[in-house]
Amino acid sequence: MEAIKGSDLNVPDAVFAWLLDGQGGVKPLTDADSVSKENPCWLHLNYTHPDSAQWLATTPLLPNLVRDALAGESLRPRVSRLGEGTLITLRCINGSTDERPDQLVAMRLYIDERMIVSTRQRKVLALDDVVSDLQEGSGPTDCGSWLVDICDALTDHASEFIEQLHDKIIDLEDNLLEQEVPPRGFLALLRKQLIVMRRYMAPQRDVYARLASERLSWMTDDQRRRMQDIADRLGRGWMKLTAVSRARR
Questions:
Q1: Is 76 within 8 Å of 114 (Cβ atoms)?
Q2: Cα-atom radius of gyration of the chain, to the nearest Å?
């Protein structure tokens, strides 16, 4: 694939536009930069911002189907191969103070060997883990390792929330045995959380498993093995939560 001019990825209101240095760090993308497999870029956009919306609607770097998806058309976790690139939709645990997963944040991304274009409306807190590593020079070195690190961070956040739900179910049973009535609305919220997690986490596990099995040119065998480990970890967490919720009905 031919290199991309940095000026073709210049979006004034981007959340950030970085060039991966291949050694775990990043630098701001400039018009003079050349984006290639050896030095891919990460362009992160809020698709509701005017310049970002305009770029998504007009850039020749993205297939037409990708433009619509990155602009907020896709919600359910999925993965689609489009030529030499891959379109992925993921759901992320909301980082609000009440941690309500019925408000899951959607992150959409298009990735090939030269560039990563990710979009969101609300902030995805799990990205902070990867951003911090990149700023410290210990982050991903290419597009494949970037994707693995992102999915790993999202799964960490999901697993933590699943553990919280697991504990809530156990505490609820203990309280009921002590004839303690749960607070008003607690059961309804818990049920909604379980439904939403079931709706989105199982498909997300399947997305990870498919990424592990696809022979994507920009992913190594080691990265595919790591992706399968992430899929298995998310699957174990969900099975644990499903088992305890069924046992206590």
A1: no
A2: 20
Amino acid occupying residue 139:
G
Cα separations in angstroms, 92 against 31, 41, 124, 196, 242: 32, 22, 7, 12, 19
Q: Are 116 and 40 in contact (CB under 8 A)?
A: yes
pTM of the entire structure?
Answer: 0.89
The C-alpha angle 125, 129, 132, rounded to 5 degrees, equals: 120
Structure tokens at 104: 């899951």
Summarised one tens digit per residue, pLDDT across range 6-54 is 999 999 999 999 999 999 999 999 999 999 999 999 999 999 999 999 9
How many Cβ atoms are within 10 Å of 41's Cβ, its own excluded? 22
